């Protein structure tokens, strides 16, 4: 039975896979699980640098673990002209009656140099053998260090490999286990990310082709990205040498909204969950099989909506606006205005309580050894994913 389904699905998949989409939607997002927050950072300036993780912290419910505070990350080649974060008390994408309006709680406009509830941080601080560079305030170009909060300049193009991040302007309490921002590095500017089950991030940006030539000195040559991280990750280490130096490997949460994955597909932008919802390979994550087309010569607009029922939609639409209030019907129009033939949809696996108690390995890249349950969920996800490609 499932073999036949897979064959049918594969046939359909190969027919549609080459087309790019303007909307990628995931349903059933959120599960009951846990991650291990960092408990202690030791000798961070020396080669004996180590980190320890704490006991598991549990999460559950719609969009979890991405219902937690999230920081917003950008990698070049990219120019950011607008950013906005919205929240709503209750909003369900396919239900126009139960939907409340959205309020803009953070905003950046490059041309007008407006920055509200936004702090630009970047990895330009002290280097550490196990943690990499610490966060600092970003200077006006996004990637230099500044001594205090600085608005990103207009025409803020950053080239390949360069990154900065946006946090809110709400300061963290001091570093510590069980405190609002967890354990983090000494001396960094520490701010909360953006919170809530029901939230929306909008962007106006450009992703021009890299003008420098390719070389081995680049890690991400011509691979721009906009993504969300559990805000604990950058405050300890975004690219640690030791998996215990960040909660990432234990699954505290990442969602890639628009990400170019490799040189072959540098003009395709993928949406990907890096959570353990039915998978064991966190690095690969749960990726949509269809991609957005990167427009290298025009302004792009779009973003992501996390609704109250665990529907997550990444989209590109030239109709995206950045008003201080976005009515529920306008948000519905924004996503429903994208025709179904330009939509990719898939359903994430349902996780039973039993399967989430699986043994997480805490070494290396922190991958889970697949047990029978997660393997079956993975298979089921693949099958339903293929089916959903045409049953939208
Ligand atoms: C990570 O932490 C666990 C528990 O504290 C420890 O057993 C393990 O050896 C650590 N792994 C690394 C790579 O340091
Ligand atoms: C809700 O959507 C339905 C079907 O699309 C439509 O007929 C109805 O007018 C909408 N109601 C509101 C309040 O927008
Ligand atoms: C944070 O941003 C809001 C909105 O722009 C502003 O009203 C508030 O004063 C800012 N708070 C701080 C501490 O900068
Ligand atoms: C960004 O600004 C810093 C100063 O804050 C400067 O040192 C650095 O060279 C600039 N980076 C680029 C790519 O221009
Ligand atoms: C700033 O963003 C935070 C994080 O989501 C939010 O809790 C807060 O209400 C926002 N501040 C303002 C002034 O909107
Ligand atoms: C590039 O990334 C896409 C999306 O993850 C993947 O399907 C494809 O196999 C990758 N290509 C190469 C050559 O690695
Ligand atoms: C850049 O070079 C790397 C190898 O160093 C290669 O993997 C990648 O595909 C190249 N990127 C482009 C866009 O050609
Ligand atoms: C999707 O359908 C619309 C109208 O039915 C059509 O105009 C558009 O070209 C189609 N797009 C694709 C990618 O097939």
Automatic annotation (TrEMBL):
GO MF, one example: glucan endo-1,3-beta-D-glucosidase activity
Signal peptide: 1-19
Enzymatic class: hydrolase
Species of provenance: Tetrapisispora phaffii (strain ATCC 24235 / CBS 4417 / NBRC 1672 / NRRL Y-8282 / UCD 70-5)
Protein name: glucan endo-1,3-beta-D-glucosidase
Designated gene of the protein: TPHA0E03370
Assigned EC number: 3.2.1.39
Domain (Cell wall protein YJL171C/Tos1 C-terminal) ranges: 101-331
InterPro entries: YJL171C/Tos1_C, YJL171C/Tos1_N
Catalysed reactions, as listed in the record: Hydrolysis of (1->3)-beta-D-glucosidic linkages in (1->3)-beta-D-glucans
GO CC field: fungal-type cell wall
Segments crossing the lipid bilayer: 375-391
Pfam families per record: YJL171C_Tos1_C, YJL171C_Tos1_N
UniProt keywords, alphabetically: Cell wall biogenesis/degradation, Glycosidase, Hydrolase, Membrane, Signal, Transmembrane, Transmembrane helix
Any single GO BP term: cell wall organization
High-level lineage: Eukaryota, Fungi, Dikarya, Ascomycota, Saccharomycotina
Domain Cell wall protein YJL171C/Tos1 N-terminal intervals: 22-87
Keyword check for Repeat: no
PANTHER family, per the entry: CELL WALL PROTEIN YJL171C, PROTEIN TOS1
Recorded family membership: Belongs to the PGA52 family.
């Amino acid at each position: 039975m499932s073999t036949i389904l897979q064959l049918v699905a594969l046939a359909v998949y190969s027919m549609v896979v080459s087309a790019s989409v303007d909307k990628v939607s995931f349903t059933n997002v959120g599960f009951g699980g846990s991650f291990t927050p960092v408990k202690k950072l030791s000798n961070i300036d020396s080669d004996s640098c180590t980190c320890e993780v704490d006991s598991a912290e549990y999460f559950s419910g719609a969009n979890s673990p991405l219902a937690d505070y999230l920081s917003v990350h950008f990698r070049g080649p990219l120019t950011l002209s607008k950013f906005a974060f919205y929240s709503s008390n209750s909003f369900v994408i396919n239900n126009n009656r139960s939907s409340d309006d959205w309020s803009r709680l953070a905003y950046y406009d490059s041309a007008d140099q407006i920055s509200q509830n936004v702090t630009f941080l970047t990895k330009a601080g002290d280097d550490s053998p196990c943690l990499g560079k610490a966060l600092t305030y970003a200077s006006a170009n996004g990637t230099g260090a500044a001594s205090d909060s600085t608005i990103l300049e207009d025409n803020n193009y950053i080239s390949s490999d360069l990154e900065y991040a946006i946090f809110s302007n709400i300061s963290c309490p001091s570093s510590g286990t069980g405190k609002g921002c967890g354990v983090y590095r000494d001396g960094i500017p520490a701010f909360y990310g953006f919170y809530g089950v029901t939230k929306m991030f909008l962007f106006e940006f450009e992703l021009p082709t890299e003008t420098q030539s390719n070389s081995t000195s680049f890690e991400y040559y011509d691979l721009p990205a906009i993504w969300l991280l559990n805000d604990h990750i950058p405050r300890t280490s975004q690219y640690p040498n030791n998996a215990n130096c960040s909660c990432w490997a234990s699954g505290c949460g990442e969602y890639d909204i628009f990400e170019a994955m490799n040189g072959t597909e540098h003009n395709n932008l993928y949406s990907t969950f890096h959570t353990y919802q039915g998978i064991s390979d966190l690095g690969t994550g749960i990726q949509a099989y269809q991609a957005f087309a990167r427009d290298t010569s025009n302004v792009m607009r779009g973003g992501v909506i996390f609704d109250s029922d665990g529907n997550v939609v990444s989209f590109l639409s030239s109709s995206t606006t950045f008003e201080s209030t976005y009515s529920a019907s306008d948000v519905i129009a924004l996503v429903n205005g994208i025709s179904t033939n330009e939509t990719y949809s898939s359903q994430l696996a349902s996780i039973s309580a039993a399967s989430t108690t699986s043994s997480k390995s805490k070494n290396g890249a922190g991958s889970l050894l697949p047990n029978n349950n997660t393997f079956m969920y993975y298979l089921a996800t693949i099958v339903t994913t293929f089916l959903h490609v045409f049953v939208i």
